[in-house]
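Same chain as my last thread, 151 residues:
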Amino acid sequence: MKNLHTISLLFFFLIGIISCKNNAQKPFGKDPALEKRKWMLVELQGQKIEAAADEQQIHLTFEGESNTFGGNAGCNQCNGMYTTQDDMIRLHMMAVTKMACPAMETESKFLKSLDESNRYVLQSIKENKQKVEYLYLYKDQEMVMKLKAFF
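reply #2:
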């Protein structure tokens, strides 16, 4: 009877271990899944974005070792610090060059949305039989931009 009790306890212990989800902890303050990619803007505040022939493609890159980000806002370069925790993100201490360019409306919206972003979601999907990764930035519950990863 004692052996049956021991075997039952061992069985439930093993079931408990097997059924536990393995949530790999992200390092506090950064998410390695954001790094080693160039995140190209494809949607901003509900509108699809395509760069004109004479414009730079709006993009971001994240550097985990220094917790910095950088990129191009369309006309000007931008950079700053970033921190993450769970699904929260904070892009702060942003510096932006001050070149004057025609039609800076999209750049202004992009920079404002970056500054207001406080949550993010990463998604991997199949498109045309290839794995594609997207980064969604949110202001609270509202998606403010969608970026596509290029390696």
